[in-house]
Automatic annotation (TrEMBL):
<keyword id="KW-1133">Transmembrane helix</keyword>
<dbReference type="InterPro" id="IPR026579">
    <property type="entry name" value="FtsQ"/>
</dbReference>
<protein>
    <submittedName>
        <fullName>Cell division protein FtsQ/DivIB</fullName>
    </submittedName>
</protein>
<keyword id="KW-0997">Cell inner membrane</keyword>
<keyword id="KW-1003">Cell membrane</keyword>
<dbReference type="GO" id="GO:0051301">
    <property type="term" value="P:cell division"/>
</dbReference>
<keyword id="KW-0131">Cell cycle</keyword>
<dbReference type="InterPro" id="IPR045335">
    <property type="entry name" value="FtsQ_C_sf"/>
</dbReference>
<dbReference type="Pfam" id="PF03799">
    <property type="entry name" value="FtsQ_DivIB_C"/>
</dbReference>
<keyword id="KW-0132">Cell division</keyword>
<feature type="domain" description="Cell division protein FtsQ/DivIB C-terminal">
    <location>
        <begin position="17"/>
        <end position="129"/>
    </location>
</feature>
<keyword id="KW-0472">Membrane</keyword>
<dbReference type="InterPro" id="IPR005548">
    <property type="entry name" value="Cell_div_FtsQ/DivIB_C"/>
</dbReference>
<keyword id="KW-0812">Transmembrane</keyword>
């Protein structure tokens, strides 16, 4: 009697990079692909193990809101304490905290036109963890120092 081996191949479409060492599909499933060149434009998503789907869902919702204002998330992090941080492709770091992430992203996009007009400075970081308002760290436009 000959033994049979059944091989199943599942094609995966890469949505993003998970915790810098795994890949993530559009359903939030992680997988490993040895020797595959990963597109640098894919979002980098980070979070506690087992929270892949939550991080993906949060990323998609926040990216949809930011798309309306021509911002792209380069990296999204959900910390062990469930606080969100985003790094945008334009070089801005957003600290959103643990609650009301969508309201805080909306506050950023509402105030960005005013903030972006601030003299010879570029926005480096925006801390949106406050119930109202925000704190901004600036970078000199000419030498990129904070």
């Amino acid at each position: 009697m000959a033994a049979k081996i059944h091989v199943f191949v599942v094609e995966q479409d890469v949505f993003g990079v998970w915790n810098n060492d795994l890949l993530l599909n559009k359903f939030g499933d992680v997988f490993y692909a040895d020797g595959v060149a990963v597109d640098e434009s894919l979002p980098r998503l980070f979070g506690p193990e087992g929270n892949e789907k939550d991080v993906l869902k949060g990323y998609v919702k926040m990216q949809h809101l930011l798309d309306l204002h021509k911002f792209k998330i380069k990296e999204a992090v959900l910390s062990e304490r469930y606080a969100w941080q985003l790094w945008l492709e334009v070089g801005i770091h957003l600290n959103l905290g643990r609650s009301d992430k969508m309201k805080r992203v909306q506050r950023f996009v509402d105030l960005y036109p005013i903030l972006s007009e601030y003299g010879d400075k570029d926005i480096a970081r925006v801390d949106l963890r406050y119930d109202i308002g925000l704190a901004v760290a600036w970078r000199d436009k000419h030498n990129n120092e904070s």
